[in-house]
Write a structure and sequence with these properties.
By secondary structure, this protein is α/β, with parallel strands linked by helices. The chain contains 9 helices and 7 strands. The chain has one domain: 3-Layer(aba) Sandwich (Rossmann fold). The chain starts with 10 loop residues before the first strand and ends with a helix. Bound molecules: NADP nicotinamide-adenine-dinucleotide phosphate (NAP). NADP nicotinamide-adenine-dinucleotide phosphate binds next to helix 1, helix 4 and helix 6.
Length: about 260
């Protein structure tokens, strides 16, 4: 049967691949045998991530600059990556951002920007890479959602973020429905709070015990690590998940089990 988790011979693009979760996933996919490119807006961050991945596992990954909230920029990413790789088999959408305000004070421009990046931008990537994958009759798409697509928080602040992730979950399911006939699977990963650049300021603002309290509230009694998303991502990008589509895997230490 061979190694059904191997990604040998596959080409992958990880949007948001210089971020905390995206970089860990990009490295995991590269270590599983695929050729990998990472893409986001900041060239400095992309170059740092390329160097760190090389230092960690000796594998060279490509990078592309993209603003995934601008459709023409996403189209250029598809053209460039298909030109360089020949074809793209795997798309991971690990871009996103998170700003918290009480609902009664939420600046609507920030609410809308969050939807632009976390939902509209992911849809744009799925649309344009999806069109390419349909021609190939093969594709694996993995979207980074969150436990916040499924359960709200007790405190204030999450109307925007929860809204985007709930919407992304349904976009993921609908794309699975439409792309299934072309041998393209579309799934999501729903992590809980993980120490990455997106979360550091938010965690620091919650006081010195924030991390300890958060760990204590999870059945597995520790904070999530970026590496906790890697196994689910490799599974969802590999032939091991050949008949899995429209699903959301929660590497959340049991939070959604008790949520
Ligand atoms: N960390 C957590 O606790 C957690 C929990 C659940 C779900 N998630 C989700 O996991 C994903 C990754 O989060 P993370 O924690 O790794 O965040 P992160 O470290 O802040 O990384 C986010 C990445 O997205 C990129 N990005 C943002 N806007 C973009 C745009 N318009 N076009 C292209 N790239 C863009 C950023 O790069 P540039 O700014 O250079 O473009 C950055 O590389 C997000 O969808 C997040 O919602 C995170």
């Amino acid at each position: 049967m061979g190694n059904m988790f191997s990604l040998q011979g596959k080409n992958a693009v990880i949007v948001g691949g210089a971020g905390g979760l995206g970089q860990a996933i990009a490295q995991g996919i590269a270590e599983s045998g695929a050729k990998v490119a990472i893409a986001s807006r900041s060239e400095v961050s992309l170059q740092r991530a390329v160097q760190e991945i090389k230092a960690a596992c000796g594998i060279e990954v490509k990078y592309y600059i993209v603003d995934a909230s601008v459709e023409s920029s996403v189209e250029a990413l598809v053209i460039d990556s298909v030109r360089d790789f020949g074809r793209v088999d795997i798309l991971v959408n690990a871009q996103g951002f998170n700003k918290k305000f009480k609902a009664e004070e939420f600046p609507m421009d920030i609410f809308e920007q969050m939807f632009d990046v976390n939902v509209v931008g992911v849809m744009m990537c799925c649309k344009h890479f999806g069109k390419h994958m349909i021609k190939n009759g093969y594709g694996k798409i993995v979207n980074l959602s969150s436990v916040r697509g499924k359960i709200a928080t007790r405190g204030a602040g999450n109307a925007g973020y929860c809204g985007t992730k709930g919407a992304l979950d349904m976009v993921t399911r609908q794309l699975a429905s439409e792309f299934g006939q072309y041998n393209i699977t579309v799934n999501a990963i729903g992590p809980t709070v993980t120490e990455t650049p997106m979360m550091t300021d938010i965690l620091n603002s919650r006081g010195p015990n924030a991390r300890k309290d958060m760990a204590e509230n999870l059945p597995m009694k520790r904070m999530a690590l970026p590496s906790d998303c890697v196994g689910p991502a490799v599974f969802l990008c590999s032939d091991a998940s050949g008949f899995v589509t429209g699903n959301i895997i929660y590497p959340d230490g049991g939070l959604t089990a008790i949520g």
